[in-house]
Amino acid sequence: MTATLPDTIRTRAYIDGQFVDAADGTSFESFAPATGEVIAKITACGEEDVDRAVVAARAAFEKGTWSKISPAERKTIMYKFADLIEAHADELALIEAIDAGKPITDCRDFDIPDVLNTLRWYAEAADKVFGKTSPTGADHVGLIIREPVGVVGGVLPWNFPMAMLAWKIGPALATGNSVVIKPPELATLTSLRLAELASQAGIPNGVFNVIPGLGHIAGKALGLHPDVDMVTFTGSTEVGRAFLRYSADSNLKGIVLECGGKSPQIVMADCRDQLDAVAADLADAAFWNAGQNCSAGSRILVQSSIKEEFVSALAREANKRIVGDLNETS
After folding, report:
1. What does the domain layout of the chain look like in residue ranges?
2. Is residue 294 annotated as a catalytic residue, yes or no?
3. Is the pLDDT score of 1 beyond 60?
4. pTM
5. Kind of pairing, strands 254-259 and 178-182?
6. Quick one: CATH architecture of 13-128+146-259?
7. Cα 179 to chain center, whole Å?
8. pLDDT of 141-165, one tens digit each?
9. Which of 86, 259, 294, 309 is catalytic?
């Protein structure tokens, strides 16, 4: 049996400061990767819901409740947001571990600290992004002013949902933008909970919206929306290409892509006396985060003269890994 999710999980879309159902009432099932159990039914946003979120984000941006307050105020609120995440770290780690099928130690000891460091770093940078003056004659003043872009869409991958969310909202929020986040359908729950904590920290309604749903529906609608100014996407190269097409087919919105790719590790014979250490490093690379990592070592090229020794060393390291729920296998 999967560990029990806390009562604080949220399963509905978060739009304009409220948890809401999809306009057509549809939902999708979320499964625990460890067991295949259905752990939640989550709102499946469609085009109408994406539009509601973008309208709310635009209205908040134009109203200036976030975009026009002082950078120092944004910094204070973002620090409070990070503090709330830290206070709920155990809860968030448990949700992520069950929902994304990750070892809870990874969630607790890597993901949460990464989220906190990212948000606090950008919070501190909020009042340290300066404009410039350009050289002019004595009768002119030339200013270069940095301004928020507007409404930023973020489309997240399933392997690091919390960390990737922080990477995307950190710079966007610190500079005064409104955000519309499309979380991964395979691991949605922490994004919704973090939106709630952001509201509790003081981020105004409409500034932080979460639209769960399927990529080819909700993600596509976000990419094609004419009132989204920028989309940041992490995922496959195939879908990254699609977002470039969505931009071309709509308003030429800015697109920031972090697409998948892997490179092999190469093990040469001159490291024969370090094979155990090399095998340990490469096992960590392959199996860290349950192997759910774009930089995981899925290929190892080994010089033939040390092949048998290295395979044995790597097998020993692989056998140290426990597959399954520790509560059942320990």
Report:
1. 13-128+146-259, 265-323
2. yes
3. no
4. 0.90
5. unpaired
6. 3-Layer(aba) Sandwich (3.40)
7. 13
8. 998 888 999 999 999 999 999 999 9
9. 294
